[in-house]
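User: I'm new to structure prediction. If I give you an amino acid sequence, what do you actually give back? Let's try with this one:
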Amino acid sequence: RLLRRRHQYRGYIHLKVLPGASDAAVTEAVGIANAVSVNIEVPGQKHFEKLSARKNFTEDIVRPLKLISRLTAKGNPRERVKQTTQFIVGAADETDAEIVKYTFGLYERLHLERVYFSAYQQGLGASDLPGENRGPESARGQTPDPGPSPGNDLLMREHRLYQVDFLLRKYGFQGDEIPFDPSGQLSLECDPKQTWADRHPEIFPVPVNSAPRATLLRVPGLGPITVRRILDRRRKGRLQGLSEVGLKGIRLALAARYVKMN
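Assistant: Good question. You get back a string of structure tokens that encode the predicted 3D arrangement of the chain. For your 262 residues, that looks like this:
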């Protein structure tokens, strides 16, 4: 309020809303900020109870998320205010499938701008937190196992969740299309888009010179920019190879396994 009114600051402000903030405080935050966020932290009450004995997931987290969504809904005076949130990956014993289910719901029902993910850092929390008592296997949401630091696994989980986030926001994937293993985890060895492609051989190889945009976006190695270049190039004539649209190196070799030119 001081920045906006006393100092007449017109730059970018992103306000973080603490759990339990009053509706009046949240409403004013939306009125003076460019972006507002409440960190959801974990997918659901069951996991939230393992992190906090004082806060209530429904009242302190979900309710303000919904309030911000209503205040920034299309047609409202503050519709340009962006709403984001963040999951802490590995603090509880949540699975990737649970995080993705909530992420998709936040986009579909509450229309959030972005969902972020942050790997839990051991040694910063109470000793009884699930995230403080896990080995490499349990970092993936499995049974706790004493062993080496699971930090690398958690960072890769974070990376895979960001890849899924792009599939949901930019590639047209639905939440129930994301491929998990039987325990509800994303593969740490293979990115989710390629895993999905390998599980749907009936769709491949995709004909580059005739496939629609939505199908081309399903091809491993092809992103929105490359697909746009393909569609633009097709208006001038048939492509003989993906190198004509600037694809090269590892991405070219990967995409070549899933397409046909003629």
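You can read the tokens as a compact description of the fold. Here is one thing that stands out. The two ends are 61 Å apart (CA to CA).
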